[in-house]
Design brief:
Elements: H1 2-7, H2 12-35, H3 42-47, H4 49-60, H5 68-75, H6 79-90, H7 94-112, H8 117-123, H9 129-140, H10 144-149, H11 154-163
Helix pairs in contact: 4-5, 5-6, 7-9
């Protein structure tokens, strides 16, 4: 890979990139194979087709009125089995994970758009601005208006993400 990058031959950069992608995939496969169900986290969840399907549904439709039952149905599992497996793999309940995803999406919109809080709230599945504000504060550590005040400080967003 280093030789391809040094030589400046036609297609060398492409070959180096493809080798890097291959190494990444092999490293991820090795990690997942060694985890053997004893690890928790997003990568392990993505290796579980049923849990990965539910996660994909949450990410594709974050504003949907998700329930544990509805997510279990997307995974093709019973509600109890799904909830237990999700918690074991992800370290959080399905609804806690969904809430965190929604708040991260909302935080990005608050920081990088001029959308009102009510528009952002609706975009992530909240009908009430007050319910959204309460959930946002629990998750992000500040109410949306305070968070918006951090627009002038780009580091404020990264600091709040690190807390999660």
């Amino acid at each position: 890979m280093l030789a391809e990058m040094r030589e400046s031959e036609p297609g060398g950069l492409l070959l180096a990139q493809q080798n890097a992608y291959t190494m990444l995939v092999l490293a991820l496969r090795t990690y997942l194979a060694e985890a053997q169900g004893s690890e928790v986290g997003w990568l392990v969840a993505l290796a579980d087709r049923q849990i990965a399907g539910a996660i994909a549904s949450m990410h594709e439709h974050p504003a949907h009125d998700w329930t544990v039952q509805a997510l279990a149905e997307t995974a093709g599992m019973s509600r109890t089995t799904f909830a237990e497996r999700f918690r074991r793999i992800m370290g959080a309940s399905p609804i806690a994970y969904l809430t965190r995803c929604r708040m991260l999406l909302a935080a990005d919109r608050l920081m990088y758009t001029q959308d009102s809080i009510s528009v952002v709230a609706e975009s992530v599945g909240y009908e009430s601005e007050s319910a959204f504000s309460a959930a946002f504060k629990r998750t992000m550590g500040a109410v949306p208006r305070e968070y918006c005040a951090g627009r002038q400080d780009p580091g404020a967003d990264m600091a709040s993400r690190r807390r999660l």
